[in-house]
Amino acid sequence: VFARIAPETLDAAVEAIAAAPRVLLWAQGRTGYALMALAMRLFHLGRDAHWLGGITTPPLRAGDLLLANASRGDLPSTTAFLRHARALGARTVVFTGVEAGAALDAA
Of 47, 52, 64, 78, whose CB neighbour count within 10 A is largest? Predict the structure, then answer.
């Protein structure tokens, strides 16, 4: 999968994380655990980062970033969160293992 990712795509994701006033992360299954860990690491680095399903997670605002994973590209909850984030004026980054799908369209 990583061999198919253009380096500038990852650069854009890193820049979006660095520029966002707040980062919310979301994924399901095992990837969810990995993104929970990333949320903690970003927090340890001084970023305002939160797991979307957390009990103390603040609301997503315009200008914030939603970073999500939709490995199949069509996970309904992920797609819904991405659409809602865009409607609020937040930026979105989605990681997926497919080249097309509802999550990519929503992001």
Answer: 78
